[in-house]
TrEMBL record:
It holds the Pfam family Furin-like. GO terms for molecular function: ATP binding; transmembrane receptor protein tyrosine kinase activity. It is found in: Membrane; Secreted, Cell wall. It comes from Glossina morsitans morsitans (Savannah tsetse fly). Residues 464-565, 580-733 form the Fibronectin type-III domain. The chain crosses the membrane at residues 866-886. This is receptor protein-tyrosine kinase. InterPro entries: CWI-Assembly_Regulator, FN3_dom, FN3_sf, Furin-like_Cys-rich_dom, Furin_repeat, Growth_fac_rcpt_cys_sf, Ig-like_fold, Rcpt_L-dom. Gene3D superfamilies: Hormone Receptor, Insulin-like Growth Factor Receptor 1, Chain A, domain 2, Immunoglobulins, Receptor L-domain. It catalyses: L-tyrosyl-[protein] + ATP = O-phospho-L-tyrosyl-[protein] + ADP + H(+). Its EC number is 2.7.10.1.
Amino acid sequence: MYLQFFNITLLLALCLTTFTADTKDALQEITTPITTVKNTIKPYECGSIDIRNHCDSFQQLENCTVITGYMLIVLLPRVNQRVHEVCNFSKYQFPLLREITDFLIFHEVRNITTIADMFPNLTVIRGQRLFLNYALGVTSMKDLNTLEFRSLIAIQRGHVFIGTNPKLCNLEKVNWNRLTLSPGENHINLPSPEQCHTRSECRGCDNNYCWSNHVCQKLENDNVLNLKKGTENCHEQCLGGCLDDSPKTCMVCQQWTDNDICVEKCPINKYASPHYLRCYTRKECTESKNLYIFKNLCVLSCPNGYTLNICNPSSDLEPFWLLNLGDVEDIKGCQILNSSVFLTIRNRINENDLYQSFADVKEIKGHLNIYKNTYLSSLKFLKGLRKIDGKNSKDHHFSLTLYDNKNLRELWSPSEDLELTRGGMYVHANYKLCNRFLKQFIEDVIHDKSKDSLQTSDREVLCAPAKLNVKIEVYSHSSVKFSWPKKQTSLQIEFVLRPLSHDEIFDENLDVDTEICKKVNWSRILKFASELSQNGSHYFHKVVGLQPNTNYACLVKTFGDNGNYEARSDLIHITTEKDIPPPPQINVKQKTDTSLTLQLNYGIVTTQQAVDYYKLEVYNLPDNKTDVDKRDYCLEPTKLYVTAHSYEDYDACCERREEEREETLFQHVMQEVYVCSRDRARHCLKGRQENSENPPVYTKRLEHSETSYTIKKLQRFQLYALQVRACNRFGCGSFGALAERTNYSTTADKIYDLSACRVANSHEYQLSFNEPQHPNSLITSYMIHFRLVTPPGQGYQSYLKCITRKEHAHNNYRFITTLTVAYDQVAVRVNSLASHTFVGWVNITICDGNTKFADTILTSRSHKGWNIFLLFFLLGAGGTMLWIFYKRRCWHNFYELRRFLPVRREWSASFVRNELAEDRQVLVDDYETVRFQFPSQHSKEEQCVNN
């Protein structure tokens, strides 16, 4: 933001035809290149120089030893348009230049990469006149790689502005604070690390500061603060080095320069120029420099009392806008400001510059507005002001406005009577301006007090307080005790407390004297001395109702009605003890059909501060099968379950959100009524599950850092109650609870044993299918679909039938119906509390009409039934084979096998006789074969003999 303001201001300065209307000094030359102006003074001294448009403009600097004014190097293209050649900046070297009395600006110079050899001996920039607040500015230099001043040791006034220069690196090793002498701020815009691949290491430098690895920063004479350091061999009037001990060979002079010789004061026959620090003859002063003679000085303007100096703004309708030191300098020497004045400076400046510029101002024709000055602390520079006319002030209400000056502590005591001819004062939002100073100022100024609008600080700012020795003792999680000596106490005592967030540091200098948006955080308690507890030497007061485990900034003030005796304590930081943690907020941030992932939120008090661990309990809330079976879901089907609210219309969404707001408000009220704390421990068990018939299915202790946890191995589409308690060494708080269902599975409600057939020569259909093994909660009904596939283009002929889960179970999971049409395919849609799952089409086969369908289908209910059936089948098949072997005498064909069989002889004989028996097979009901055996007469007799 400020960079953009600097660039816009610079461009305006470069484009305007005049810099100021009445200025007769060198600043008029900003918009007038001086290529045609011939120096009439000695060759080494040049006036202000403007180098732009053509790189040949650098020729103006030939033989210049000092520039008594400013130098602009701006708007130079890559190609010299005069000769159509690329500018070669390396050939422009000016080793004679040592001093610039005003400022130096670089702006939009193309194809220049370094200035190390351009001004190798430039030693000082005086900053007598500034551009805004700056004596050195470098901005929009797209090709500049390094900023190197080999001999520059001091910017005596003003500061440095380094704007956007994409390739300009290695600025972090420059000691800008030692380079600039006056108080204030340098604006250094460092490029990103991605743009600068290397950094200067200041190799070979006597100190740790450098412009680059090739150019060290020169710090001789400690920026003229210590004149003796490093100047043992130079003349005492030298600055920045010399060739020998003669005052003629100094790089730059400490004070005055007379014909390139450093002198302590100017000769009698010459006039000293305070602005240029030069000694001039009368002709040099008045004709060459266009300055004025006053006594033995060569001055920019006539001082007070010699010439009435009425200053006008640039436009008759415009006020004086004083936004920086450059603007303030424009009114220097003015006695009457013929318009309104708006003073608003956002940068840190040297307030002595304001004294010099306002020293002669006696009258302001318009109104005076001093507002939003960030660092301005005093208005003493206005002590010479005698009248504010208030012309053109809105409705003539206010001639003087003091608004939102954050650090303003003092006004001024007028040296003579100060009068506001029209209107009163508007004084607000100056939070460090104490009441007593303001009241005294109002009494000193002649004006209509009935038109005033004044701030009331409610004793927030004490004018000159003594120190109050306060001791604070933390009593518990919600109370602290203040104590202080009785002898330091005035009539009233104010306790001021402010809660601080974790790791927040509050500046003591800003305590209650802060901006309005932060003042709401302060708690204030005003007491009279008679209301306090006391003993023989001290007063006591206990403050209750504080937040537990919270940092507080505390302050105590004491004052009387007359404001003569005031005292305040230092800003003291205390921390209340921990309380039993309140219930955490529980959210389900992710879920599947078998898991729930919890997110624990703990509000303002962080987990690291108040919670040692969490207790998690999970309860299963199963759907009631009896209640579900009471309802005929074929007549009253369920709605499709939706996990999100994406299908809600506008009214339903608003209704749901209103219900959520009411529920949240109700929970908040209940938490306030039944708050769980160390003072009310009986409330900490409210809401706990005490039903022994429904114990938790899952419990877990979570560490305080585990604010996210996944509960696994849960049932599909089951409702679970999740309860979490936050605990520390003082106990566990009340439950934070949430009820949530797991997701449903799209395949859980499928059936895999659907079979269907139609009885031959009839329309009786017989279906069989079991319930899903692990469904999504409870099954409610089945929708059975019959269809007849018709020729292409004619669609399907279908029939639907709904049966409830209870009905299907009662019929042993079989469905028999008679229809009027011969259908060839059937499908089933399984309806559960969660979803509707469609089971694909199955072809209908033909049942055998002579056999009951019940005897031909498998009725096993599980894979275990199939396994049992298979076991018995194998045993039966094996026994049948053995029986056939026995009856058919098959082992006779296996002689080796017969030797190992334990067969008795009588059995063998019987077997031989049985071979003669007659066998006959009969087919019964087309299903099974029964063997009938008729023994012969011989075998019958044999049996009789045996008997």
